[in-house]
Write a structure and sequence with these properties.
heterotrimer, A alpha/beta, B mainly alpha, C alpha/beta, A: alpha/beta, 2 domains, 4-stranded parallel sheet, B: mainly alpha, ABC transporter involved in vitamin B12 uptake, BtuC, two-stranded antiparallel ribbon
Chain lengths: 346, 302, 244
């Protein structure tokens, strides 16, 4: 039952908006107002660099990377506000917007574009390449598979970046070291994420060599994490997830299952260990960001053909509190090697 | 100069995405079927196209393959609704869910890159940047001609005796049955056609943006709804027969919406603000009272 | 003078139709049998709930009876294929909104119903001319290009009648066609039905108020609680009936 009748709503709105002309002018004023908040004064005569950052969605790991990148660039003499202007665009998960954002960014003719995530990088490269604007991607897991570069070893004109390919072998070796009795790994992942697809293939490749069997727990949304994890109880000896954004968002559910059933819960990056993951061999995203920053600096200085940097992922993160709750004793050798031992669950 | 550029990308996206809006508006307004399938037929069209291209199929064959996939999904929605007596919305949602898994299987990945692959836009690329203009003239002209020709064909088809029977089946199934028109047959064919169009445009979208991703369909429904609403308010409907009005409104709506989005992106609005601003613009358009008579007429097709 | 026995075109035999209403089993049509002759105008009367509409629906093949059968032209109505049924029987509903497609124009509604429309010798102007003369009596001749939705309920009902005439089905069923009409249109409506009757169509009409129809119809069948209460000839039968 509507509160107001239709004619009443109409007269309200027309009282507010009046004629069509008034509506349009209000709309224009609002638009201009919003624009003015984005206005950045430049106007000095010194050499100014524009670095455009294009992201598909905001995730803690990528935030870390950007922080690392900016820190590194500052160190190399490219300082925000002094000789560098950053432009941000974020599609907030809407793949629909990638082409529009890519076109917008290229039209602004930045000196370099930093792109994050696979689809955004693809869209950006498609437009930037004919426009001859260099692109540096950050943490695209499989740039070759995504058609962005032909190979990670040979540099390509105007396109380079850092890849955060999961260090699976190292990760699974760590699992073997901490909990030698684990045979069946329950992998939680979202098949809809490019990184996870790649990861699944790698896991399937390395697992048998190291004596694991993998039980797949596909998840299509954050809400699925808890029920799928629950469904794996009894069929697996440990839960495992990597840098899958969907599962990370829902990891509290998986953590609950792990603690309740005394299952070790291995994860893929430091941020997730902080949240309660037992252990991870991680690509340090801050470090990845720094490597990205170095690439950007080289590009800004004129280099155009640089091979991709594939992060090695040699940092070990453990969470002692989580180990306690899961009934796992972390060997001293691991604790000594760890980059960081978290004592609490956030 | 840079302030004209959003018009460029807005036009391109608006022309490509006019097809999903057309399909949605057509099935909703003319067939009486609010078809949510497009959220699935879009990514599936792109997926099939991408895989075909990866296997070195020719461009036309790849596009046709995509359209056939879309047609199958549309037919499936109709069948689920008719055979299992599932509510129209739900039938579409079910097929969207199916298509997600289907896309992952078809692509064997969640994403396929198409950056270096042959594209229909390569042929018109020389026209881009013509006359020192910043506009992707070639691309725009190509898309516009495809749209105009396609829309003309659609309108002609809609006015044939077959097209009229299709519309009767959608407008009043009881009446259609009384005339011996098989409502199931027409519904299945109708949805197959609309979703084939969506899938075909998805191929163009994948070509243009350089990839096919399983998440491409997200948000397309809201986009179609908003565009359709904007278009129906902006297009003067009194002189136009209903089918032509629906087609023109869909095209206009898509163009206006995408141009608005392009300008919002230019204004540097973060994506969250972007949703607010586009919602605001849609509301502003809806609130515009043009002439009183229009409300009555729009009631006609509601 | 020869008395030619009228041909039976609709035959209802031992018809029983029941359905559940709010958990209770209601027998709407209870063992009804009667014949309708070709070219006859039959009125079905009775109180609300007497089963008239249900009986009409059963005759039109719209529902499956529990027992008994309906034959039209000697064929079981439920066994007829939809296309064939559509050329045999046409129903005018009580609710005027059911009878026409709202999003299509008046012309298009007629066009799609017109069995002769698709013949190649019929150009659009010719068809428009023909429809205009059909629409003349009901006053819609100048509104052919308008979508049906803008028509009033009464106008849509009259349009449905014109459509029925256009279809030329041998049997026409009307479920209280006058119910939704305002008094100014009643006469026109009856005229249309009479015209169909003159064209030797069989008309079975559910009616509430028979005063206006008494003079025109041939026979009245009264129903009460699903059973035939009585039936009577209205006008004296002509001894000689022309062959249809």
């Amino acid at each position: 039952m509507p509160v107001l009748s239709r004619p009443q709503v109409h007269s309200l709105i027309s009282a507010f908006f009046g004629s069509r002309a008034r509506t349009l002018s209000i709309a224009t004023l609002l638009a201009l107002g919003l624009f003015s908040t984005q206005f950045v004064t430049s106007g000095t005569a010194q050499e100014k660099y524009t670095i455009a950052i294009a992201n598909l969605m905001q995730v803690p790991a990528l935030d870390d990377a950007l922080e690392g990148m900016k820190a590194e660039l500052t160190k190399e003499g490219f300082v925000e506000g002094k000789n560098v202007e950053y432009i941000y665009q974020n599609a907030n998960g809407q793949i629909q917007l990638t082409a529009t954002i890519a076109n917008d960014i290229v039209a602004r003719k930045p000196n370099v574009i930093v792109s994050l995530t696979t689809p955004m990088t693809q869209a950006v490269v498609k437009v930037a390449r004919p426009a001859n604007i260099p692109v540096v991607f950050a943490s695209v897991t499989d740039p070759v598979g995504a058609g962005i570069v032909r190979s990670v070893d040979i540099g390509e004109l105007n396109i380079t970046g850092t890849s955060d390919a999961w260090p699976f072998e190292a990760q699974m070796k760590l699992i073997r070291e901490i909990t030698p009795n684990v045979k069946r790994l329950g992998l939680l992942f979202n098949p809809g994420e490019a990184a996870s697809q790649y990861g699944l293939r790698e896991v399937r490749k390395y697992a048998p060599e190291l004596g694991f069997t993998v039980v797949e727990g596909p998840v299509s949304s954050t809400n699925d994490v808890f029920p799928v994890a629950r469904g794996l109880v009894g069929r697996v000896d440990a839960l495992f997830l990597s840098s899958d954004n969907t599962v990370i968002s829902g990891m509290a559910g998986a953590l609950q299952v792990a603690i309740q059933n005394k299952l070790p819960f291995y994860v893929g990056d430091s941020g997730t260990v902080q949240k309660g993951g037992l252990a991870a061999v991680s690509v340090g995203y801050y470090g990845l960001g720094q490597d990205t920053g170095r690439l950007v600096a080289r590009v800004l200085r004129g280099e155009r053909t640089i091979p991709t940097i594939v992060e090695k992922g040699t940092e070990i993160y453990v969470n002692a509190r989580a180990a306690e709750l899961m009934g796992v004793r972390i060997p001293d050798a691991v604790l000594k090697r760890a980059t960081r031992v978290y004592q609490t669950i956030e | 100069m840079t302030w004209v550029l959003p018009l460029d990308i807005g036009l391109v996206m608006g022309l490509i995405l006019a097809w999903p809006v057309l399909a949605f508006a057509g099935s909703f307004r003319l067939l009486g079927f609010p078809d949510l399938t497009l959220e699935g037929s879009l990514p599936t069209g792109a997926a099939v196209y991408a895989v075909a291209i990866l296997n070195n199929w020719s461009l036309p064959t790849a596009i046709i393959a995509a359209m056939i996939a879309g047609a199958c999904l549309g037919a499936l929605t109709a069948i689920i609704h008719l055979q299992f007596r599932v509510n129209k919305f739900l039938a579409g949602i079910i097929v969207v869910a199916i298509s997600y898994t289907l896309d992952l299987r078809i692509m064997e990945a969640s994403n396929i890159g198409l950056i270096q692959r042959p594209s229909v836009f390569d042929y018109v690329a020389p026209l881009n940047g013509l006359i020192a203009s910043p506009f992707q003239l070639g691309t725009i002209l190509l898309l516009a001609s495809v749209l105009i020709v396609g829309a003309a064909v659609l309108i002609m088809a809609i006015n044939t005796s077959w097209g009229i029977r299709l519309r009767v089946a959608g407008s009043n199934p009881n009446y259609a049955r009384a005339l011996g028109i098989s409502v199931p047959a027409y519904l299945i064919v109708g949805l197959a056609i609309t979703n084939a169009l969506v899938a075909g445009s998805a191929a163009f979208l994948a070509m243009y943006q350089g990839f096919s991703d399983v998440g491409m369909g997200q948000g397309i429904l809201i986009f179609a709804l908003a565009s359709m609403t904007i278009g129906e308010r902006l297009v003067p409907e009194q002189r136009l027969p209903i089918p032509i009005f629906v087609v023109v409104a869909a095209i206009v709506g898509s163009l206006v919406y995408e141009i608005l989005v392009a300008y919002a992106v230019r204004l540097g609005l973060a994506a969250t603000d972007l949703k607010l601003v586009t919602a605001f613009f849609v509301l502003a358009v809806i609130a515009m009272r043009i002439r009183k008579h229009d409300d009555e007429f729009l009631e006609v097709i509601r | 003078m020869m008395t030619i026995a009228p041909r039976v075109i609709v035959s209802v035999r031992d018809l029983v139709v029941s359905f559940s209403r709010w958990g209770q089993r209601v027998t709407a049509v209870d063992n009804v049998s009667f014949d309708v002759s070709s070219g006859e105008w039959l009125l079905l009367v009775g109180h609300n709930g007497a089963g008239k509409s249900t009986l009409l629906k059963a005759i039109g093949g719209q529902l499956q009876p529990d027992a008994g059968e309906v034959l039209i032209g000697g064929r079981h109505v439920r066994a007829l294929k939809p296309r064939h049924l559509a050329t045999t029987v046409f129903t005018i509903h009580q609710d005027p909104l059911l009878g026409t497609a709202p999003l299509l124009t008046v012309f298009e509604n007629l066009f799609v119903a017109d069995p002769k429309a698709r013949r190649s010798q019929n150009s659009k102007p010719a068809l428009m001319g023909r429809y205009a003369s059909l629409l003349e009596p009901i006053g819609l001749a100048d509104r052919m290009k308008q979508p049906v939705k803008v028509l009033s309920g009464g106008e849509r009902q009259l349009l449905a009648l014109v459509i029925a005439r256009l279809r030329e089905t041998p049997v026409i069923l009307l479920d209280e066609p006058l119910a939704a009409l305002d008094p100014s249109k009643t006469e026109v409506c009856i005229e249309e039905i009479a015209a169909m009757h003159r064209e030797s169509k069989t008309v079975i009409q559910v009616a509430h108020d028979i005063r206006a129809l008494q003079a025109r119809a041939d026979r009245i069948l009264a129903l009460r609680q699903g059973r035939i209460l009585a039936h009577a000839d209205v006008a004296p039968k002509n001894s000689i009936r022309p062959d249809s």
